[in-house]
Amino acid sequence: MNGIIDISRLGELEDYLVTSGFQPRWDNVLLMTGYDRERTYVLTRDGEGIILPKRLKEVLHDFSEWADVPRIEMQILYRMVGGHTPGIIAGHYELVPTCGQGNCRVAYYMAHYMDNYQLNQENKNILITFKGANQRLITVMVDACMATFNRLLQQAHAVGKIQLESVKNLCNKFGIGDQELNHLSCTTTYHERYLHRKQYEKVFLDQILDGVKQTADKCYGDDLSTVFYAQLRRTLTLY
Predict the structure, then answer these.
(1) If we measure between CA atoms, which residue out of 237, 7, 24, 33 comes closest to residue 139?
(2) Whole-model pTM?
(3) With 0-12 CB in 10 A as exposed, 13-18 as middle and 19+ as buried, what is 128?
């Protein structure tokens, strides 16, 4: 088993760097799992293991916010594909759970960096081989059921497919061809992407709020309270 990272034995393997200065991104992480009840183990694309002094749930929340993938979007899309255990999906980017979220053994892995996976015949765990940095292959062993692993992976692919089809539909709607799309993606800075995201969020929220307001007026002859709208806005932007 040399060269394989067994995440069920993280505490036995080595002393890891503990830092709060690492920001998980789509391009710098391979896997995340709970190290203990208060800390999270992160395997980077360089093959390094680090510890974040936050619970896994908090790390996932912060990552969702960074990636701009609201919880309600994942709940709706996973419901569409018959899933009940959402990952964090953004088109081609997929952070997928290995099993149910309530399982203490759950790990979240970047499926877009997965080269292959197979059943370990010795203990029936799953071996995941990732494409790390500098063309390095990194293999991790996770404690998961193959049937569940396959199901969650296929659901993540299905969610990403719906998102990409939505992008394609928008491109067709606005007459954006492949060449223009490549130009837009290459020339947009991080700050511009942030401003575009906030602009889209405002349009999305205002459409929902206006729709609710008009429906309330037609059904009840009166508008709903400001407290209701404040809660609705919070619900729609939860990560």
Answers:
(1) 7
(2) 0.87
(3) buried
